[in-house]
Records
---
Amino acid sequence: MSEPQPDPLTRAPLDLDAVAAATEEVTAGVAVASTRWRGLDHAITVTSYTWVSRDPALLLVCVHEDARFLDAVEQAGAWGLSVLAQDQRAVAGWLATPGRPAVGQLSRVPHRPGPATGVPLLDGALAAFECRTTAAHPAGDHVVVVGEVVGLDHPAAGADPLVRFRRSYHALA
Ligand SMILES: Cc1cc2nc3c(=O)[nH]c(=O)nc-3n(C[C@H](O)[C@H](O)[C@H](O)COP(=O)(O)O)c2cc1C
């Protein structure tokens, strides 16, 4: 016979801090999501992104509801995703810094406009995708932004990826 299960109504409330801490055990590639809106470049470091569909080619990125980037990407309707190489940890740190100036976020980060959409794409990235937003789904305190890939580049094909694990950046090798 199977063991009796705890009553879901009397179970202690879930410890959300413990859940958040446990997510640090997830190994993730680091990328920069970027867009251009009203003449300004906006960019943030992300690990909550993935490939969704091959045909059509869809990517998603989860953006926190308080991120300034969310307003910009919702208005712009197009965004870039640059998958970072291991020598780009300073870029990852900068673009994850809360309260950094809204103007000139990429002024010291080598980049160029994507030919399909004009969104900034980072030099030195393993892969750089240009996407047009096809859907935005609120999910808890984030918005899942889905986009169709309309442009692709490999600025640093063959380089090693930047990886995030247990609150630190790592190289694979
Ligand atoms: C390694 C790492 C991964 C992150 N991943 C995400 C993410 O997937 N989505 C997100 O909204 N914020 C993520 N953040 C936090 C944003 O990079 C950070 O809040 C940024 O400063 C937001 O900038 P903004 O307010 O100018 O948009 C991450 C931060 C770090 C350090």
---
Amino acid sequence: MDPIDGQTLPPPAPFMFGCAECVKLLTAFGEKVTADAGCFYEQLAIARHIVEEHPDQVPEPHARNCDRCPRYASRSDGDPGGLWAEHRARDLFLPEPIARLL
Ligand SMILES: [Zn+2]
Ligand SMILES: [Zn+2]
């Protein structure tokens, strides 16, 4: 897996530029990305923020190329911890191969 760098990041979803907290989190993530290819903390912070503050922007479950959505979908208790929603929210600011890691 190639490390994340500024070139491989997709442009963040447009709604994120209208939210001061999103911009702040994306800036922190962007600064971290060049120094630390993992930057998991920043990734998680953005995904959690989107789920909590922008739930209507969370993408639909992935129909393909994802082994996590079918597993989440088969759970009888839904998504109590919001982890499935966080997984889908990663699409909004990460390249697909990296977004689907968590
Ligand atoms: Zn936001
Ligand atoms: Zn998925």
